[in-house]
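Quarterly update from the structural biology core.
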Amino acid sequence: MTIPVFWRRGLALLLLSVASHGAAQEPASVRNVLLPALDAQVAARIIALDARLNPVHSPPLAAGLLGRLAWPDSGSLAPLLSDPRNNAVWAQLADDYAQMALDSGDLLASLTETPTPGTVAWPSMQVRRLCHARLARLPRSVLQTYRRRVDTEAKALLAQAKLTRSDVPLRRLIDDFFCSSVTDEALDLLGDLAFERGEFEEARQWWRMLLPSDSSREDELRYPDPKIAPARVEAKRILARIFQGRFEEAEVELRRYGLEHPKASGALAGESGHYHAILAKALTTVVQARLRNNDEPWTTFAGNAMRNPVLSHAPLPALWEDGPTWRVKLPALKTGLARGPMFHPVIVRQQILIADHRSVVSYHLHTGKELFRFDLRLAGLSDPGPHADVGASSPRFTLTADAERVYARLGPTPMGSRNGERPGASYLVCLDITEPAQAKNREVWHVRARGDDKMTLAFEGAPLVHGGFVYVALSRVRQGRNTTSIVCYDRHGRQRWAREVCETPELDENGHGPRGRQHLLTWAAGQIVYCSHSGAIVAVDARTGVPTWAVRYPSRGTLTNELAPSPRDLAPCLACDGCVFAAPADSDRVFCMDAVSGALRWELDGLEAAHVLGAAQGRLYLATRDGTAAIDAASGAIAWKQPSDGKLPSLGRGVLAGGWLLWPTRDPQLPYRAVSLSHGRQSRDKTPTGTPARYEPSVFHTLPPGNWALGEGCLAIAGLSELSVYIPSHRLPNGVEPRPQARREAGLPRLAFE
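Predicted structure, tokenized:
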């Protein structure tokens, strides 16, 4: 017998109260990581309120109710859930939760009693969202009373948003009055506005809050009684998936939609009719458009701000069979043992840009002609300090670009003191990359970070750029502790906000450090996520810097459990489909968190990842210490490993494209593999788009291993010593001699991802 909605909410609250009677003390390794926003007193208040959710305030009766849950029927549940004493209690709880959201909403609270068996993570969640999640589960009669108090202000905010087409009042509505009677309209409009901006993943997450929860987790934030039909919400989410270019996932979702909602109809995407037919037509149209012209840039490390570049089509080997169109030497730096390629190029505005610790260089994408070179010393900004020539064991150099500018982190790579000496200043530099700009005026603005005799202050890696704002991590090392802040600048270099997010030990328990690589930020549906690789993963609201969630875990330091150096390369978090995935360098675990709440969905141990490559087709793909692996994104179970014997480490960062994982290896005879995303084997089958795969191993022998960038229809590989660029002949400008292979391209498809 199906339990009515009212009773299900009561049961959820009961289970919550039983499970949340207290929070255990974290282990010392977790307590060593400090979160400025974490407040134990507020957590205790929430736990005390949760304890009052017992329907009759009686542990024996609660235990008896739990014993009868195996045979749920109205006769056993109704007397307890309809007890008149509960309405008064729940009404007061609604007031208390709402007040706590207003008074302490910006703080974090950890309500974990003990980690789930087999896990080590300790999540903390924003108090405001915790309170909203609890309000949403109260009986409808209580919600109606609550809404009578808040609806006037909520409706005013919604009217303002409809008039101005601004998401600012909508976000305030969500933050302050999530359970109002009009919040479903606000969520729907927020999704529409994100879709119009091209923020398709963010749109999907707003609309997701209008769907019934697919789990029993009490921390999941879902609107309790939306008026918009689930069939329409799902249709809009599939439309966003199509425009993401995630065609295989869209096909799967569309097939399921046809079975669940075959007759659902209305207006969608400028047409009227059955949603399934409209979506099928949109899918065909967008796929054909992508095949004709895919000129999307590669603007940052891993291709985009979510660190999840999944290209719908892969390049044909004809692109590189006769070698690169052009290549240049990469800077030779004074480093220790450099494990793998150090440089990660970006491709934008028919330029390819690359940087080291002192300079940014731009080349014309099609010809290789140097367009400009920015150097700290020549610009009069150099403050090298004692470690100006890098000196770190494995530095990594990244850039971030938009349509007009490129942003770089320049300066010494070590983040802390070495041998009692502190590095010099680091810089966040913004350069103009438009054609009219002259070499002498490329710099638009810069920001300098420099400590003193008692403190080291340094920017982390290249910033994240999104929506006209620039976000960067800034670390301060003092007395053996590393305090990291996230800072937001506008396009003019003016600071909008700064927020301390975590404090971790500078050195691990074995005294190893400081680190020589900078950590990058990730965009996750309106949040900025930072993995410290020192025991903490934190997320903040991109508009305000207010913390939204955090996860702490025991840090093993810079060495593996076998006392070998960690194989992790640059490994920022990856965001996809409402999840954030993290593979910290100081842990042998991979974590999956809910993007909105930070709740731990799963963790997987014993998998030494080198790169988090991407998420597609319901899986997370990793380059491991000795091969590649696919993990089920929903459960954390390993789907496949390649090779099965685990004896082929990576040498650079590959990509996911056209149903393939294109993977650089340390095999000198065959430096690349093409691994099928679906089954983990090399295959000569056809790609989903019908283009001959032609990815047998022999076609890769001419490619140098290294870090891939695929943008503007071209392929760039930054290897150990050279930057190699491959251009299809039809894209070469007039006067440039095509390569010999151009003669063989007649009758063949162009780049498959075009």
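The chain has a mean pLDDT of 82.
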